[in-house]
Amino acid sequence: METKVSEYVSHKDALTAFSRGLQEPEWMLEMRLAALDQIDELEPPVIERLRYNRWPLWQVPNLTGAPSPKPIDPFEFIEDKADATRVIQAGNDTVIETLPESLKEKGVIFTDLHTALREHPELVKEAYMSKAVKPGTNKITAFHAAFMNSGLFLYVPKNVEIEDAFESVLIQNSLVEDTFIKHVLIYADSNSKFNYVEKTLTKGDKKNAANIIVEVIAKAGSQVKYSAVDQLGENSTVYFSRKGYTFRDAHIDWAVGVMNGGNVVADFDTDLIGDGSSTDLKAVAVSNGRQLQVVDSKVENHGNNTVGNIFQHGVILDRATLTFNGIGHILKGAKGADAQQESRVLMLSDKARGDANPILLIDENEVTAGHAASVGRVNPEEMYYLMSRGIEKSEAERLVIRGFLGKVIQAIPLKGVRDELIQTIERKLTSR
């Protein structure tokens, strides 16, 4: 049952008991309670071309802190690699956590957020909802800050470069009714360099909401490659918010496959604060059935000589809807900034609805900016070329689509995850 907004403050005692049961530091409880008081006052974020006020995103989660009565077998979703650097969470529970001693000796932390809050509270406090995302920004962030029930913390110290990717598997437990309010905090200290790969999945078919926030804090000179494949279920109504915050000369590379089954807002933002910092966002999405997905990407250039690139490609089937909003904002004072974006939608059905909505906001001179956007169908010349060489129409169409989405697929560092994204795309394409 959907909770009325006016009822949220009635959860104060339960929320306090939940926080203290997890042994959270006092500053975390204070943040939760302050956010709880703000929920009623704030409006949901405005997403261009979307009205989602009736989406069931405001369901208060289970605050007992008890383990799920219906646990999930994580090996259903992963290959058993003993040497993987990995955290797997099923619902609110961390079921697998592996971090090599060699990385622990370098000061790397890769653990669930509740453990990090107990063992490294001051380090978490430096980054958690204080820079990239703030609790009072809107109703979504306030609700999240108040009721966050699980999460992940990754910290890589200064000057540490790591070749093997950090992996996370975040499984929404929809065998039970419970809102999935997950927070992933990635903190890259100065001149660190690493890859992080994330998979989100759903087990079960209960109708649940998901409110997922990812923060990537990239300090001076750091380089972070963040890759994700989102595969939450058909009965999951989801608001993803992934946001980066860069210091001087830092770089965040995003590569995300938005492959969920239900109605989704995927909100990608990066604030380029430090001079010389940059970001590349590459996102692909496939919508099918009667699904409604909006990918809302924004880069704000604050510092001098900052560079922000947005690249979004999507495919729509059946009666589905897919909208790409791309926003490049160069603020006053950001001399030498560069903001570029490309959004393209491929429709494979006469009943599909697609939109590519580019927006450039330029408040400074001596900058560079540009955009490209298109909504169309499979190129008949490409189809003719392939079919003339004996390839059947359905296979030719899949090859064209895979090429159309290929830039993001190739940007994911782990072959197994790339293959899984390809399989997910194929599954959606053959579901017609």
Number of strands: 19
| Unreliable parts | none
Give the overall shape, derived from the CA principal axes.
Answer: globular
Which percent band covers the strand fraction? 35-45%
Strand order of the largest sheet: 2-1-5-7-9-11-13-15-17-19
What fraction, in percent, of the residue positions are helical? 10-25%
Largest sheet: 10 strands, mixed
Compute the number of helices: 9
Rg is 21 Å
Order of helices and strands: HHEEHEHHHEEEEEEEEEEEEEEEEHHH
Structure description:
The protein is of the alpha/beta class. It has one domain. It is 22% helix and 39% strand. The chain contains 9 helices and 19 strands. The protein has helices at 12-21, 26-38, 101-105, 113-119, 121-127, 139-147, 380-387, 393-411, 415-429; strands spanning 85-90, 93-98, 109-112, 150-156, 166-173, 180-188, 193-203, 208-218, 223-231, 236-246, 251-258, 264-272, 278-287, 292-301, 307-316, 321-330, 338-347, 353-362, 368-376. The chain has a 10-stranded mixed β-sheet with strand order 2-1-5-7-9-11-13-15-17-19, with helices on one face. The protein has a 9-stranded mixed β-sheet with strand order 3-4-6-8-10-12-14-16-18. Strand 1 (85-90) and strand 2 (93-98) form a beta hairpin. Helix 1 (12-21) runs antiparallel to helix 2. The chain is globular, with a radius of gyration of 21 Å. The model has no long low-confidence stretch (mean pLDDT 93).
